[in-house]
Amino acid sequence: MVTYSTSLAYSYSKEMICLKYIELQVITTTEASDAVSEILYNEGASGVLIEDPNDFNALNKNKKSWDYIEDELIKQIGEDAKVKGYFLSEEFNEAVLRSIVDRIDKLEGFGLNKGKGIVTTREVSDEDWANAWKKYYKPVKVGERVVIKPTWEEYNVKADEVVIELDPGMAFGTGTHETTIMCVKLLEKYIKGGSTVFDVGCGSGILGITAAKLGAEKVICVDIDEVSCRVSGENAEINKVAEKVDVSCGNLLDVVSGKADVIIANIIADIIISFSEDAMSFLTKGGIFISSGIIRDRRDEVLIKLRAEGFIILEVMEMGEWCAIAAEGK
């Protein structure tokens, strides 16, 4: 069972109404961190922060690719992945807490290792949660050319680099997770000038914006979360690609018409498996389906399904515990 502790009595007392946010932390694993994030968003979190030592370890293999982050900050993260969700205090209660605990407890039924699964809460101010994660977020070169830079950081652009300025705000996606890094590397390889691209589950819009800056002519970003859609649009404006990037709020490709030369889906294995048939129908002949967010243990399942739908597997990329696949449609 998931264990949890709480420092609050969840009742609408005068003291609680005065509070702005509740920080709920889940101690989990790298493989379950994305799923835990989705649970917290679905339960009403205004924002989610992932602190994962594996992200830093992967980047540490090539320190030239990113700006220096103090060792003390990395030590503070520890050995476990931590997912922190921030809830408006007046919207958070015992029922929300118990629902989160129950859903995390059921993750192993979907083949995900929840790890310790410890859930704790504490009171924080809006300023605390809005700025806490920024100390971990620095410019990072995630591909041969692409650099992800937070809007508040300075960076000296080198020749041939493509810089993506990003302020994730309350949306998921800063560009430093292995699943995103692999997608960027594959986009660098497969995006052609004038391409049409669908980014399914766009989060902060990072992959769709990258596609636009790499030469795509039209990009449609889709996410079921309204906050992600808003933030994606804002980030497209920041990167001066708003004329190329349309953002639609909806479920997968229910809100999209036409066909794409490239479809990106950085989600989870189960959704990619169920989505692969739709992906084929929305691709132009010879179009590329880039899927990521796949735990290595689920790689073969995804490959079998893609081949069954008629995809030709072009390459499988691995980083840490994750896989990304580039497949060609028929």
List keywords for this structure.
single chain, 330 residues, alpha/beta, Alpha-Beta Plaits, Rossmann fold, 11 helices, 14 strands, 28% strand, globular, disordered N terminus
The termini sit apart by: 45 Å
Structural class of the secondary elements? alpha/beta
Using only C-alpha atoms, the radius of gyration works out to 19 Å
Question: What is the name of the CATH superfamily of the largest domain?
Answer: Vaccinia Virus protein VP39
Low-confidence stretches: 1-19, 62-70
How large is the count of helical segments? 11
Helix % is 25-40%
Question: Count of DSSP E strands?
Answer: 14
Q: Based on CA inertia axes, which overall geometry fits? A: globular
Write down the CATH topology of the largest domain.
Rossmann fold
Architecture per CATH nomenclature, i.e. the level-2 architecture of the largest domain = 3-Layer(aba) Sandwich
> pLDDT average, as an integer?
82
* Tally of discrete structural domains: 2
| Main sheet record | 7 strands, mixed
Strand order of the largest sheet: 10-9-8-11-12-14-13
CATH class of the largest domain: Alpha Beta
Strand content: 25-35%
H and E order = HEHEHHEHEHEEEHEHEHEEHEHEE
Walk me through the structure.
This protein has a seven-stranded mixed beta sheet, sandwiched between helices. A four-stranded antiparallel beta sheet has the order 2-3-1-4. Mean pLDDT is 82; it is low at 1-19 and 62-70. It is α/β, with parallel strands linked by helices and 330 residues long. The chain is globular and about 50 Å long. The chain is 33% helix and 28% strand. The protein has helices at residues 14-18, 30-42, 53-60, 71-77, 94-105, 126-132, 178-190, 206-213, 226-238, 269-282, 299-308; strands at residues 21-28, 47-51, 81-88, 118-124, 140-141, 146-150, 162-166, 196-200, 218-223, 245-249, 260-266, 283-295, 312-319, 322-328. The protein folds into two domains: 14-135, Alpha-Beta Plaits; 137-328, Rossmann fold, CATH 3.40.50. The N and C termini lie far apart (45 Å). The relative contact order is 0.12. It contains eleven helices and 14 strands.
